Fold:
Amino acid sequence: MNNDLLFDFNVDKTAKTVYITREFNAGQSLVWDAFTKAELLDQWGAPAPMRARTKYMNFEVGGRRFYAMISPDGQERWAVQEFTSITPKTNFKMYNTFADKDENRELPGSEWDYNFSEQNGRTTVRITIFNESFERMEKLLEGFKMGFIMTLKNLEDLLTTLSQKL
Structure:
């Protein structure tokens, strides 16, 4: 990870909310695409050695992404993301919940709010994750931070590769 790029991860247990701020050395349009296009999400959206595979994605308000994180031994952990608000290139919100392979949701879930801004060729992504239950948040936090850091490293590598092609 490039150490001069901002990374901040805070948990407010009382508010059942996680706040993440991460800076990337890439333009806002490219970073936006990495968070909103299935073919790019599948390249970085799971911590190694796992991989992400999107079954389908319809990035529009009311649309969904149904995807799995797949372990090296083939075990799949499915999730549904339902997009609730989209302001192109600057913000989108979604409801996220785990599911089984038939898309039956495991409630409760969480509400994710992504904000993108660019300054001097660097893009900052601010993510707010509100969990519907304290128990869900506690369960997620066990491995979430480490896994999320690993996926963001994948994204940083992908953005470097994609930036060189522009």
In short: Residues 134-165 form the longest helix (32 residues). The chain is about 30% helix and 45% strand. The chain has a mean pLDDT of 93. The CA atoms of residues 54 and 96 lie 14 Å apart.
